[in-house]
C-alpha cells in the first residue's frame, strides 16, 4: 500500500519519533501550524478516525496523546482529527494533530 504514514512508521524515512508505544507513534509535523504541532499516528492503517474502532488501538493512541500533551505542551492544547478531503484531510491514514501555542 502506498501510504506515507505506514512508511514513516516502518522507519523508511528515518523520521524521529518524539514518543511511541505498542499501538502508536508520535512525530513532529513537517509543516507546523503552531509552536507545538505533533502528529499521533496509530501503527494500524485505517483511513480515518471514523474507521478506527479497535479498543486496544484507541487506548494506545490516547495514552500516547496524553503523554505527548503532558511532555510537549503546557497542558493546554487542541486535538484535531481531519476526516475527509473537504474537511482538510490530506493523508488517509488516521492521525491526531496535537497543537499548542506553548511548549511544555
Ligand atoms: P491532514 O491534512 O491529513 O489532517 O494532516 C496530514 C499532516 O501530515 C499535514 O499537517 C502535513 O504537514 C503532515 N505531513 C505530510 N507528510 C509528512 C511527512 O512526510 N512527514 C511529516 N513529519 N509530516 C508530514
Ligand atoms: Zn497507512
Layout: helices, strands, pairs:
Layout: H1 4-9, E1 19-20, E2 24-28, E3 36-42, H2 55-72, E4 78-80, E5 96-100
Antiparallel strand pairs: 1-2, 2-3, 3-5, 4-5
Zinc ion binds at residues 3, 5-6, 45, 93.
CATH architecture: 2-Layer Sandwich
Distinct compounds present:
guanosine-5'-monophosphate, zinc ion
Q: Which of globular, elongated, flat, extended, rod-shaped describes the shape?
A: globular
CATH class: Alpha Beta
Mean pLDDT across residues: 97
Determine the structural class based on helices, strands and strand pairing. Answer: alpha+beta
Widest sheet, order of strands: 1-2-3-5-4
Q: Summarize the helix and strand pattern as letters.
A: HEEEHEE
- Number of helical regions: 2
Ranges with pLDDT <50 over ≥5 residues? none
What is the number of independent domains?
1
User: What would CATH call the homologous superfamily?
Assistant: HIT-like
Radius of gyration: 13 Å
Number of strands: 5
Write up this protein.
The chain has 104 residues and is α+β, with helices and mostly antiparallel strands. It has one domain (4-102): HIT-like (HIT family, subunit A, 2-Layer Sandwich), CATH 3.30.428. Helix content is 23%, strand content 21%. The protein is built from 2 helices and 5 strands. The chain has helices spanning 4-9, 55-72, and strands at 19-20, 24-28, 36-42, 78-80, 96-100. Strands 1-2-3-5-4 form a 5-stranded antiparallel β-sheet, with helices on one face. Strand 1 (19-20) and strand 2 (24-28) form a beta hairpin. The longest helix has 18 residues, at 55-72. The chain is globular and about 35 Å long. 25% of the residues are buried.
Amino acid at each position: 500500500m502506498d501510504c506515507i504514514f505506514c512508511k514513516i512508521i516502518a522507519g523508511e524515512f528515518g523520521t524521529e519519533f518524539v514518543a511511541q508505544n505498542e499501538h502508536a507513534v508520535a512525530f513532529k509535523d513537517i509543516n507546523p501550524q503552531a509552536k507545538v504541532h505533533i502528529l499521533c499516528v496509530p501503527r494500524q492503517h485505517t483511513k480515518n478516525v471514523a474507521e478506527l474502532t479497535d479498543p486496544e488501538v484507541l487506548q494506545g493512541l490516547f495514552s500516547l496523546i496524553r503523554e505527548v500533551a503532558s511532555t510537549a505542551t503546557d497542558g493546554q492544547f487542541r486535538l484535531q482529527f481531519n476526516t475527509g478531503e473537504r474537511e482538510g484531510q490530506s493523508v488517509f491514514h488516521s492521525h491526531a494533530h496535537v497543537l499548542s501555542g506553548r511548549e511544555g
